[in-house]
C-alpha cells in the first residue's frame, strides 16, 4: 500500500474527504484540522491500495490540491489491518499491475538529472569497464554494468516520449549527452597514463578475448537491449526494483564506452568504432522497448495531463 498525506485549504477539506471515502481502495482516513502551517490548512492522511492510487491522486489534483496545498505519497512496507486488507481486495486490478503515474514521473525526473553524483557513478563505471578490458576480466565488466547509472535517464526519455513530457526528454538527453563523453574522456586520460607508466601492455590487451563480446555488435545486441528495456520499465512501473539489477547486468552500455576509450588509446579505431556502435544500439534499444511497454500500460491511463513542469532546473 501507499500512504497519502494531503495539505489542503480549509474550504476544500470536505471535498477531499469525500473523494477519499467514496473510493473502495482507501483505508485509515485521518483528519488533522488546522495542522498545516505553510501553506495553512488541514492535513488529511489515508492509506491507499496501489491500484487505487492513480485515481485518488487524479481526484485530488482535479480539486487543485497540488496547487493550493500539496500531495505526498510514501511506500507502506507493512500494514496490519483488516480495513487495509479490505481496501486492497476492493480496489480494481492487481497491485503488481498498477502504475502510479505521478510517482513514475517524479522518480524518473529525479534520476535523470545531470549532477555530480550521476557523473561520478558513470565515470567510475566507465573506469571499471576499462580495467575489465585491460585485465580481460568479465567479472569486472559485470561490476561496471551494475555501477552504471544510465538506466535512469533512459527510462526518463521513454516516459517523456510516451507522456509527451519534453522537459523529461530534454533533461535526460542532456545527462546522457554530457555524461558519456565526459566519462569516456576521463577514462581515455586514465588509459593514456596507464599505458605511459607501463600499467598495461598493448599486445597483451589485444591478445585477450574474454571481453570481446563488449564490442561485437550483432542482432543479439539489439535483442538483449530490447528485452532489458522492457524488463526495466516493468520493474519501475510495478515497484519491483530488484529486477533492475538484472537489467544493469544484461546490457553493454558502460562497458562499450570504456572499451571505446581503451581502443582509442591503443589506436584500434575499428574496435573503437564498433564499441561506440554497440553503445548506441544498446541505448536506443532500451529506450524503444521501455517506451513500448509504457505505451501499452498507458492505454488504461485517464485522459488528464499528469505532469507539471519539474520544479528544479
Uncertain regions: pLDDT < 50 for 5+ in a row?
A: 302-313
Shape: elongated
User: By helix and strand content, what is the structural category?
Assistant: alpha+beta
Q: Give the strand content.
A: 5-15%
Kindly, what is the distance between the CA atoms of the first and last residues, rounded to a whole number of angstroms? 31 Å
Helix content: 55-70%
**Main sheet: strand order:** 2-3-1-4
The tally of beta strands, per DSSP, is 4
Which sheet architecture does the biggest sheet show? 4 strands, antiparallel
* Mean pLDDT, all residues: 86
| CA-atom Rg in angstroms | 23 Å
User: What is the count of structural domains?
Assistant: 2
Keywords: Membrane, Transmembrane, Transmembrane helix
Protein name: Putative hydrophobic protein (TIGR00271 family)
Organism: Saccharothrix australiensis
Folded structure, characterized:
- With 313 residues, the protein is of the alpha+beta class.
- The protein has two domains: 2-98, 2-Layer Sandwich (Alpha-Beta Plaits), CATH 3.30.70; 103-298.
- It is built from 14 helices and four strands.
- The protein has a four-stranded antiparallel beta sheet.
- Helix 6 crosses helix 13 and helix 9 (166-196) packs parallel to helix 13.
- The model is unreliable at 302-313 (pLDDT under 50).
Amino acid at each position: 500500500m501507499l500512504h497519502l498525506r494531503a495539505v489542503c485549504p480549509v474550504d476544500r477539506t470536505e471535498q477531499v474527504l469525500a473523494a477519499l471515502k467514496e473510493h473502495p481502495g482507501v483505508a485509515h482516513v485521518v483528519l488533522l484540522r488546522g495542522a498545516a502551517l505553510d501553506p495553512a490548512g488541514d492535513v488529511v492522511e489515508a492509506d491507499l491500495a496501489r491500484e487505487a492510487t492513480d485515481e485518488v491522486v487524479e481526484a485530488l489534483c482535479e480539486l487543485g490540491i497540488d496547487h493550493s496545498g500539496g500531495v505526498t505519497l510514501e511506500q507502506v512496507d507493512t500494514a496490519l489491518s483488516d480495513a487495509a486488507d479490505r481496501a486492497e481486495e476492493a480496489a480494481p486490478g492487481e497491485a503488481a499491475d498498477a502504475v502510479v503515474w505521478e510517482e513514475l514521473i517524479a522518480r524518473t525526473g529525479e534520476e535523470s538529472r545531470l549532477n555530480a553524483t550521476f557523473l561520478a557513478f558513470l565515470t567510475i563505471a566507465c573506469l571499471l569497464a576499462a580495467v575489465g578490458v585491460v585485465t580481460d576480466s568479465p567479472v569486472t565488466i559485470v561490476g561496471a554494468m551494475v555501477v552504471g547509472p544510465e538506466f535512469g535517464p533512459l527510462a526518463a526519455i521513454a516516459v517523456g516520449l510516451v507522456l509527451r513530457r519534453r522537459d523529461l526528454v530534454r533533461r535526460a538527453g542532456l545527462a546522457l549527452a554530457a555524461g558519456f563523453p565526459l566519462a569516456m574522456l576521463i577514462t581515455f586520460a586514465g588509459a593514456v597514463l596507464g599505458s605511459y607508466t607501463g600499467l598495461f601492455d598493448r599486445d597483451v590487451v589485444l591478445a585477450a578475448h574474454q571481453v570481446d563480446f563488449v564490442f561485437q555488435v550483432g542482432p543479439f545486441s539489439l535483442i538483449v537491449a530490447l528485452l532489458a528495456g522492457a524488463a526495466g520499465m516493468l520493474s519501475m512501473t510495478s515497484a519491483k526494483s530488484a529486477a533492475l539489477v538484472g537489467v544493469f547486468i544484461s546490457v553493454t552500455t558502460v562497458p562499450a564506452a570504456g572499451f571505446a576509450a581503451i581502443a582509442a588509446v591503443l589506436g584500434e579505431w575499428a574496435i573503437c568504432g564498433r564499441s561506440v556502435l554497440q553503445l548506441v544500439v544498446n541505448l536506443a534499444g532500451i529506450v524503444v522497448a521501455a517506451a513500448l511497454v509504457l505505451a501499452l500500460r498507458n492505454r488504461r491511463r485517464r485522459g488528464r495531463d499528469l505532469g507539471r513542469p519539474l520544479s528544479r532546473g
